[in-house]
Amino acid sequence: MNSDNEDKKVQLIEQRREQILAAAKRVFAKYGFRCTKVDQIADALQVGKGTIYRYFQDKKSLFLAVFEQGIDRLRQTIRANVEPIIEPQRKVAAAVKTFFEFFESDRELIEIMMQVRSEFKDDYRRVFLAAYSDYIVKIQENLRTGMRMGIFRALDVEKTAEAISAVLQGVLQSFYVREFGSETAMPKTDKESSADYNSIKTKNEIGRPGQKRELLTDNIEPVTALLLEGLLKR
């Protein structure tokens, strides 16, 4: 019985932590790290500010936890969607598709990433480079496999892997500049009610007036074609 109670307690703690992270991501993505107040996140959850501080030491630790959670989900998604594939060219196509679909489904994470890179460069490097080094190795392994099978032409594996990563990151950065970077959200008041918060529509949800909403997934086909054109043996 005690064991069951302990398990339930752990589950409730983890559930609350996930709720806090989800609310924090929405608020940070809307207002930015500097303009966000912990009270806003607490209001969105309809809890006291002290509840937030029981789980996270301060606003920065919460902000970075949101970022780390997002990067971890990206790694898990790539692992699930790409690693089981054997054929090298299909693996490249699946990686591109997974990357763009993941960020299209979680545009708030794009905003969080860019904020972390701007506000906390050392923490960004620490978290991002850990994930980066992992998937760069996977890209290199796939390139070597494709070369051994005679599918890919002779390549400088290290430089080619870096170039593939740079293409994906570059497209994401360019997309961010077009879709997010032209406006900076600011809170209307110091104490925004949870009702007001729930009615918020972010810029990336609404889109620009009179303009077709750009999708990150529109890049899947051209980027895949570009990469495979350079990789495949003629």
Structure report:
By secondary structure, this protein is mainly α. The protein has one domain (2-231): Orthogonal Bundle (Tetracycline Repressor, domain 2), CATH 1.10.357.10. Helix content is 74%, strand content 0%. It has helices spanning 2-31, 38-45, 49-55, 59-82, 88-105, 107-119, 121-148, 157-179, 194-198, 203-206, 220-231. Helix 1 crosses helix 6, helix 4 packs across helix 6 (107-119) and helix 4 (59-82) runs parallel beside helix 7 (121-148). The radius of gyration is 21 Å and the shape is elongated.
Structural descriptors:
mainly alpha, elongated, Tetracycline Repressor, domain 2, 234 residues
Q: Gyration radius, to the nearest Å?
A: 21 Å
Helix content: over 70%
Give the averaged pLDDT, no decimals.
86
CATH class: Mainly Alpha
Low-confidence stretches: 183-207
CATH architecture label:
Orthogonal Bundle
**Classification by helices and strands:** mainly alpha
What is the name of the CATH superfamily? Answer: Tetracycline Repressor, domain 2
* Count of separate DSSP helical elements: 11
Q: What is the global morphology?
A: elongated
Question: Quick gist of this model?
Answer:
This protein has 234 residues and is mostly helical.
How is this fold's topology laid out?
Layout: H1 2-31, H2 38-45, H3 49-55, H4 59-82, H5 88-105, H6 107-119, H7 121-148, H8 157-179, H9 194-198, H10 203-206, H11 220-231
Helix pairs in contact: 1-2, 1-4, 1-6, 4-5, 4-6, 4-7, 5-7, 5-11, 6-7, 7-8
